[in-house]
Here is the input.
Amino acid sequence: MVITAAKKATHYNDPNFNYADYWEGRSYENGAELLAIDKFLKDKHFKVAVDVGGGYGRLSKALTKYADKVILAEPSKQQLELAEQFLKDYPKIDRQLLQANSLKFPKGSVDLVTMVRVMHHLPDPSIEFKEIHRILNDDGYFVLEVANYGHARNRLRYFITNKPLPTEPVDIRSAKNKKKDAIAFVNHNPKTVIKQLAHAGFKVERTLSVSNLRSTLLKRFMPRPSMLMIENILQVPLTKTYFGPSIFFLVKKAQ
Here is the structure.
């Protein structure tokens, strides 16, 4: 599956698709991701943080708690335009039109990199991992989110059918979008991603299972504060089983 850099951004430049609107009704998922980031970073502070593929700056705001300087590195012009309004109260957040595979920052100049909700567009993230390794300093951290194909429901489904869980990325696009050669949309096996990170010179320090209660039915009937309270409790104990649909890794360079 070959997706060019231009195609990766094209979807998010479509005037008929507003990524900010996508997050309407997803306050639980947003809150769950903020909980995970805080678990990783709450006792840390950084000089420079780069939010790779950060869209309109949804998580860039949160990074200002942990870093003196935050850079939103986003390949979509439309998303950066949306960020002007969304980040209007955060004038110090720098916004740059950049692809994850060519970040342009000097070697070792960044203390923290986050890449959330990007891996599902990267069937092969090796070039992006190499580039992040290049810009990150030796003591820096990389927070990576992965769309998890090995979540509990999928593992049960494969167990029932007596089939092994795929180790390669799984294309979850509709048949229509496959015919249109639309932007890549894949789920990953977390164990494979750990190996890919190691190949790029990284080691995983911590892992969290995130959005464990993601369910349209639950969101309809359970108050968001209650869901997030339970989510906060479950993120660590459910990690060993890769339970949730989203897995967060806290990564450092291997020494």
Q: What stands out?
A: DSSP finds eleven helices and nine strands in the chain. Strands lie at 46-52, 67-74, 94-97, 110-115, 136-147, 170-171, 186-187, 202-210, 246-253.
